[in-house]
């Protein structure tokens, strides 16, 4: 019997996904077996995926990380999206005890002071809740795109997440922002009003600013840090790649 090699299987799946449209990609991964979970930050890319899941009634769970520091516009968009597509978006919150311990050690907004303090905050408010959201899942679907930043330039359609032991699917890897905007426009997809105010990438309120013309899409995220540190630990491979540069 041939041993299963999840990394090679993911490479083959990646090649198959490359030849499909978005609905085909999502349908295929929804049928792979095991729980498929899509994690959304309610960003414009994620809204495209949520729209496809809702429109085609795909058996994919949808989860979001309610960090407690989101913009009010982002929080409002969660409910709006649920209503428009008749879907449920499960909210995952940080543990209060973890927040208290963080505030005790670093201060509530200690993330501005050092990369370590920032990673610790993302760990408490994002990485730990993400682990709960993905617990028991076989497939994790994300809205990562190659054009979002240099750290994401090599994003494959499918990869095996060796840390979380699941298949990670990035069905929009090859979409550019113009294609995303065209889809949203053509299909009446609800999006965060902050996008129109210069925020192409939206995370927690204290850690996101509007970008200037010509800046990379994620330049407004943790703007006080340099490119190599600007991931939140959710996307381990990208972070490892950045650290190796
Ligand atoms: S983005 Fe900022 S506020 Fe949100 S979890 Fe990370 S450091 Fe904390």
Question: How would you describe this structure to a colleague?
Answer:
The protein has one domain: HUPs (Rossmann fold). The chain is an alpha/beta fold and 245 residues long. 40% of the residues lie in helices and 10% in strands. The longest helix is centred in the middle third of the chain and has 19 residues. The N and C termini lie far apart (39 Å). The protein has eight helices and six strands. Helix 3 packs across helix 7 and helix 5 packs antiparallel against helix 6. The radius of gyration is 17 Å and the shape is globular. The chain has a six-stranded mixed sheet with strand order 3-2-1-4-6-5.
Question: Tags for this entry?
Answer:
disordered C terminus; Rossmann fold; globular; six-stranded mixed beta sheet; alpha/beta; about 10% strand; 8 helices; binds iron/sulfur cluster; about 240 residues
Care to give the gist of this entry?
This protein is α/β, with parallel strands linked by helices and 245 residues long. 40% of the residues lie in helices and 10% in strands. Strand 5 (158-161) and strand 6 (166-169) form a beta hairpin.
Mean pLDDT: 90
Number of strands: 6
Q: Report the helical percentage.
A: 40-55%
* CATH fold field value: Rossmann fold
pLDDT < 50 stretches = 237-245
Distance between the termini: 39 Å
